[in-house]
Known about the structure:
The protein has 965 residues and is α+β, with helices and mostly antiparallel strands. It is built from 19 helices and 47 strands. Strand 43 and strand 44 (857-858) form a beta hairpin.
Amino acid sequence: MGNLQVTALKCEYKTNPLGIGSRNPQLSWQIESDRRGTMQRAYQIIVANEEGDFTKPAWDTGYTESDQSIQVVYGGQELQTRTRYLYKVKVWDNDGRESSWSEIAWWEMGLLDQKEWQAQWITPNESEIDPQSEPAFLFRKQFEVGRDFISARMYASAAGVYELYVNGVRVSDELLAPGWTSYPTRLQVQTYDVTELLKKEGNGLGILLGDGWYKSGLGFGNKNFKYGEQRAVLAQLHIQYKDGSETVVATDSTWKASTGPIQYSTIYHGETYDAQLEQAGWSSVNYQEDEWKSTQVCKDMGYDVLVPQENSPTRVTETIRPIAYFLTPAGDHVLDMGQNMVGRVRFIVSAPAGTRIELHHSEVLDNDGNIYFGNLRTAKQIVTYIAKGSGPENYAPYFSFMGFRYVMVKGFPGQEKGLPLDAFVGEVIHTDMEQTGEFECSDVRVNQLQSNIRWGQRGNFLDVPTDCPQRDERLGWTGDAQVFISTALFNYQGGPFFTKWLHDVKEEQRPNGGIPFVVPDVVGGENSAAWGDAAVICPWTVYQYYGDKRLLAEQYESMKGWISYIRSQGEQEYLWNTGFHFGDWLGLDAKEDSYVGATPVALIATAYYAYSTRIVRDAARALGHEEEAITFDELYIGVIQAFRDEFITKNGRVAAPTQTAHILALVFDLVDDEVRARVAKDLNELILDNDYHLSTGFVGTPYLCFALSNNGYHETAVKLLLQESFPGWLYSVSKGATTIWEHWDSIKSDGSFWSDDMNSFNHYAYGAIGDWMYRKIAGLDMDVTVPAFKRIHIEPLFGLNSLTYAKAAHTSLYGRIESGWQVDQGQIQMMVRVPANTTAEVILTGATVGNVKEGGLCLDTSILGIQAISEVEQGVRVILGSGDYTFSYENSDLFRVKFNEHSRINDVLDHKAATEIFNKHMSALLDGPFLNLVRKSTIKQLAENSMAGITKHQIDELLEELILI
């Protein structure tokens, strides 16, 4: 049998998920093999009901010839509500080997039918507790089980955010449930296994209920929005007995209510907790509830919007100890967490009763070293704790989160002598996504940039993809999400996260196809190009990463609706030149007192019109809608032509002289090949004219380096990445940033700040550069014609005199992919890992078949796992089966002066610089494997003169000899 194993079984992207809602869940698995070139030839899946009798399966695929090992749709008996299903998988490979059965995995269905709800929505009786009161509500109920039981499940949701307790024990580490959805149409239901917490005798149930997103003020100024006027909770406990019978305990008017120690808690402003008001044992049995109040049923709330949990839960995923305490010049006592993070601070304190402790959260210090709160706008981010005075007290906020690095502490006992660092810990909070991406290179500054990208994603992927986590905004901006989604899905498993959010996008879509600026929509604006296009770009990107055809099909009508909306605007069918648009938001070429960059908004809108139309065409083909694909292709051709007629001159120039205009024309394929070279040259000129600095905003920045690298100007792209002066990605790193900034100069070179009104220090949009770093520097990419990395494309582009190594890894649904390289004196070594049941196309840049070795063997010999070898323009192309590979070769490209034929050599390379380059590589030029690439006379002249006394004109001639055209 050999070592062929089936591992990492997933259902709906998750391991053993509890309470799913899909009636035809998708199953995936990975294959581990001790041989190269392993492909799945067939599989068998057996699904049993919760009794685990695989001889009487709910589904048995039998021996099924197929190489599909991800997103296999369940096709057995109708799945029953609240039922657990066990499953196992075996596979056969292309060598005829049969694996053993995998370990048994399971999924459990949630409460699927609205008619099953016996619970009622409850809130405190308004005649006894003001429904508008700020304190969080407590609810409790006690009951007896009375006999032997085998399982217990709680199904719960809330208009607000809640925590659930059984017999004094919190039932889950999930936070801020049920999350933030488009509440009028979708409200998630969580499922909890509480079997181990119940007792035969008396039991107590408790629910803690706060405002959360549901009732907190959200949005801008006078547009603050509340979904409802009162908090409410819904919970239903099912207890199953050995004899097959069942008892249900559900929320109704017999429950009791009270307020407790949480006196105030909102998303923007923080939390106030008075420990003197704690009610010990309030969720336990036999608690004296005489002072508690009655509850009432919310008759206007039903079950039609309830959906089983889709997103992964929000949790504390990491803890961080403060690295320093200091006293500011203003006299404030401040903790430095060492990392701009999102979450909360937990502390332990012993203090007299009534001691009031305040934590004020901030991202940065000002130029004088004082803690800075200006960029929070109206958000307070203040946590207040009032001690009960009974020994060590342990507290962290329940229903709020903050974005911060620095914490100003007031009232902590003994703080005049300094704050004890071991009394405080930062708890990082976000959607609990599995990390799937890694990147590292030889430049520590770029590695810090990658860390900043990841921290920015973690902080802003807290149930919805927000713009920022600290000020009075924290909204699901569609434009930010679409420019960053590919970077996001590389770094973290985002299938459940985006499935949930895209369902909200679809629900929030207007009848005319328009898309709001933010989802869930608490702002009201809609339909800007690049923002509304998230409805198309995001589901397509999820499909590319995960092959999730079901989600693509679910969003397909929404995708088409957005194109229909655009097509209906104005009088010109193929141009989008009407309506409001954010344009190249925060572009540095904007006019004074404007946030909108200089690129014409009609150019941006029409470019995105073409891009999204092409995606919908491709989605139609992927889903088998061939006639619609033809229709969208015709529309796509029309939009491209209209773009060219309107925005490209007869001489092949982009009419708008901005970097972003050129970028979009290139990356969205809006110009033909002949014009493309001219546009790429002009873009490069714009970068050089700006001394290797960008001027792009939210629209142009994500694509800038792709536009350069894909069109012969990779060196310019690398120089942009490594630019440490403003504006550039490493400028913020040089200023000590640990997350991505909203503005290139959120902190200016003199230490002052950009305007308080919009200056987030944790704003992931510009972190979209990560996508280029992974695909172009490390070279880890996919064949876009086959989703989910079934066919991998690895083609790193080496930077001249910049980076000496880079590596990336991504855990796809098939398994771990790796691409890494290092350069030592012109010797290239590339390391590649290809997971089982996939293949990879690898481009060895600058190599020839004769000078490449794999694992010490010459490439022109027969090597297991290598399926094909050919020489191509870039170097050598090899097709690999699964396995680990190490290639080594000398690369002549590293010793050519790689300036594109359109570059201005006289402007970018002086005599001294040329001398240094040629002297450094003289021996390689003479001894290397590429003498045929330059004239021997040139080599001789270099060797004899070593550039001494050569004129500027002669330098140009020598450079031309070395340029690969």
